[in-house]
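Retro notes, item 3 of 5
We never archived the inputs for the S-adenosylmethionine complex last cycle. Fixing that now. Sequence and ligand:
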Amino acid sequence: MKRIHVLRLDHRIGRDTRITTHVCLTARAFGADKVWLSGEEDTHLMSNVEDIVDRWGGDFKVEYVKNYLSLIKNWQNVGGRIVHLTMYGEQAHKIIDEVREESEDRDLLIIVGGSKVPSKVYKNATWNVSVTTQPHSEVAALAVFQHLLMDGKEFDINFNHPVFEVIPTLHGKKVNIHDENKS
Ligand code: SAM
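Structure as it came back at the time:
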C-alpha cells in the first residue's frame, strides 16, 4: 500500500465523540496515515486527536470532509482501491490476500459507517468486507481488518518524534519521556 486512509461516515457531535475518537486512534495505531471525518464537523475531536499525535509521535493526520462522495470519486480517479467494512460483505479472512495484492502499489481507503450507510457507498467500494457476519462496532471491525492487512507488521511501527514512548513490561509501567520532542 502506498497510503492507507480511513473514512468515517456520519459522525455526530456528542453522541459519537468517543467512538469516532477511538476510530482515529485505532486507525493510527494499526498503521493508517489519515482519517477523513464526515458528518458533523467536530473541531474539538480533531484537535484532541492531534494532541495525542503530538505526544505519541508519527505523522498521522485527521481532516474533515463535507462531501465524502467526491472524496470517493477522486480516490477512484487516481486508481486508489476502496474497502467498505460492513457485516454484509465478503469475509475479511477470505478476501484479504486479494486486497493486499491489488493494493500493493496503490492507495487504500477503508470506509467505516455510522448509523446508516447509503447504497452509493456499497456500490462504489472495490470490496465490501465483513469481520464476522455479526453486528458489532466500527472500531473492532477496523482493528481486525487493519491487523489482517498489515499481517502483524503494525506491532513494529515506529512512531517518530514521540514525547512519550512505552517500554513494554510484564508488570508496572515504563515510559520514556523525550523532552526534546515537546512542541
Ligand atoms: N448494520 C451495520 C453494518 O452494515 O455493518 C452495522 C452498523 S455498526 C453500528 C457501524 C459500522 O460498524 C458499520 O457501518 C461497519 O463499518 C462497522 N461494522 C459493524 N459490524 C461489522 C462487521 N461485522 N463487519 C464489518 N464491519 C462492521
